[in-house]
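Discussion board: Methods & Data

I've been asked by a reviewer to show the raw model output for two of the constructs in my manuscript, not just the figures. I'm not sure how much to include, so I'm pasting the format here to get opinions. Each protein appears as its amino acid sequence followed by a line of discrete structure tokens. Is this the kind of thing reviewers expect to see in a supplement, or should I convert it first? Here is construct A:
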Amino acid sequence: MIVKKTSGDHMSLVYQSTRDAHNTVTASQAILQGLATDGGLFTPTSYPQVALDFDQLKDASYQEVAKLVLSAFLDDFTAEELDHCIDQAYDSKFDTPAIAPLVKLNGQYNLELFHGSTIAFKDMALSILPYLMTTAAKKHGLENKIVILTATSGDTGKAAMAGFADVPGTEIIVFYPKDGVSKVQELQMTTQTGSNTHVVAIDGNFDDAQTNVKQMFNDADLRERLAAHHLQFSSANSMNIGRLVPQIVYYVYAYAQLVKSGEIGSGDPVNFTVPTGNFGNILAAYYAKQIGLPIGKLICASNENNVLTDFFKTRIYDKKRSFKVTTSPSMDILVSSNLERLIFHLSGNNAEKTSALMDALVHQGEYELTDFDPEILETFAADYATEAETATEIKRVYEENAYIEDPHTAVASAVYQKYLATNEDAHPTVIASTASPYKFPVVAVEAVTGQSDLSDFDALAQLQEISGVPVPPAVDGLETAPVRHRTTVKASDMQQAVEEYLGL
């Protein structure tokens, strides 16, 4: 398999901050920093040319597809370094050798991204990020301890801690909204082992957690105090390009599986419908399209926090709306961080314009996109599913296929049904199935059976009965696991909590 760079084999890909054209780094530097010091996100300004030969790729393993994609985007890592990272990441912690199996249902294909150790799609990237980060640290002779500072809407926190637990030279601090995650999600985090793991509940929502984390990254005084203690921040959120690039892999892999099974011919366009909160997962699909994956439409699926749906329909991003706690909590987000990268591309990679729009979002609570590349926007369709529509979709898919979707996947599935009802688009469509229903057993069982008032653990047993799928190790025994993390703080006290953990 051949990998070529757009800018010549001897040139590295440039990652630039979305807010400052002069702030450029290599891939490994971007991974170490996580977030740019100016508040922007490191983003590729051009795309590598990748030889996507599906006659070969249809028989490639997940690990081989990962090598092809990662060597193109993370081009200052050596082949040996990437082999090490990939071999360590995509191993027996996934419960199937396929890593991301594609399941054919009635009228759609579900790409199951939940076969890792925490049964959510975040495992796909967070299994490899610790290895990319520690390899990058060695590469740059970094002697500081890396402090992973992360806000989570439910899944990133657990997946990041599972990846970084007891990794030498790292510390990880995760903030989550106290009443904004499922009981299973919360217990997955609060029972996490590892001497370097810290979990803090906040009395706010995900946007509060994410805003305060970004502020800490951008605080020059805090950065100096960290440096004096031989510490530096990095991120495990999809704000970190090292989280985003591994997500490109499974879109290429899914397409290869469709070619292999004879569902499509090589070169035939395929749509992807992606349940979307922070915009990272669907942005990875957009990058897959940029390196030549034949994608027709990217269908952006939101829940009742439908700020992205409104943006794609009106070109106005308006966060001034009530925040809704839904049955798909990982999408309960009003400020989608990764949309900033798409705004940067829509604006012709113009950092000045992007910075001004992000500033307007902070100070006015909204911005309007007026001058943009229409071809990029044309790639996307967007809609949302209500709570009732999500439950109805879980039941419909179960009755038609004897298959249970988690509520996030069901949001995408319901939005795809809406898309079909209003568009004559016969292209095969893959739904990004982002979590196991075992993460949200109460929602899944209630949707299928109508039973209410079940506890999470009663629902787990019911779900096993209904689905015929064994309870995964990630949640089996969770009810009796010792709770190790019990801290709750006000959102305004997050920095104080960080300083106490780090002894600043």
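Construct B, same format:
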Amino acid sequence: MSLDEKFDKVMARYDELRDTLAAGLTESGDFARLSKEYADLTPIAEAIAELKKGRAEAADLAEMIADPAADPEMRSMAEEEFHLLTKRIPELERKVQISLLPKDEADEKNAILEVRAGTGGDEAALFAAELFEMYRRYAGLHGWRFEAMDVSETGIGGYKEATANITGRGVFARLKFESGVHRVQRVPATEAQGRIHTSAATVAVLPEAEEVDIHIDEKDLRIDVFRSSGPGGQSVNTTDSAVRITHLPTGLVVSQQDEKSQHKNKAKALKVLRARLYDRERAEKDAARAADRKNQVGSGDRSERIRTYNFPQGRVTDHRINLTLYKIEKVMAGEALDELVDALVSEDEAARLAELG
């Protein structure tokens, strides 16, 4: 199917939905479903209409320019307008093509963020804590809610691992390319020789799953309760309120101990477990779909090194798109993270457009 045929198909469906909804002859359940489809198609239909208008104007201008009887001044104005339109039409075509790309059903979902210290001992744990704070600040700049769910501290300000629930509009769409290994190069505060050390932390961003997305059978769970403890084993709770849930079919284990209520810890642990199972299911589908895909921006593989933060040189490099920003402080403050995210989103769109051929 050619691009123009796709455009016509979208416009025909858009007109059909408009007429159906205007007639008000649908059942209440159908009305909600069709209204959503109509709302989703509206920006695409508007972009197609804008593109068709631009093409029609360009054709009229080309005709005027080719007319030997045309007034020279009018021809000159037409040529100028035609030149502007020929630059704008490919941009409009790309805009429409992007809007027609299959949507990631998880893009509008909230996210579960997991950050874990990797190789590098205390320095890795300190970096993991800084990454966690970077995402907290980034969430704040976007007006999202950032709720720390479970934080395992090292006692010197570092995190062995930390989990947060981030809620807001389009959270997963903006954060999904953050999954992978983040490497840091710098001189640790504890290093007397002033040598640069390399350490790493792993980030996982999972779409938050609803019960409708993933059903968990109670008989597939083993739930253990234990006493919460703080850094160094110091007791922070005198009751068995901490919860560890093991999903027997997959072997996935989730622990939660931040709340004083066992019920609340169990609810939070189930939320994380559901997100991990949903992410696992998506990864299996993506792997099958992308078996012959060469231009993936990121496979989402947790072992893939995606970014290096070099403090002595003040730079952050994303290895998937070979983009380097010399503004490490602004990236760590969450302020410049959008520059990386925007570039990753654009690269992913370009790769998917290339697949459509």
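Answer (T.O., handling editor elsewhere):
This is acceptable in a supplement if you add a one-line summary per construct. For B, something like: The radius of gyration is 26 Å.
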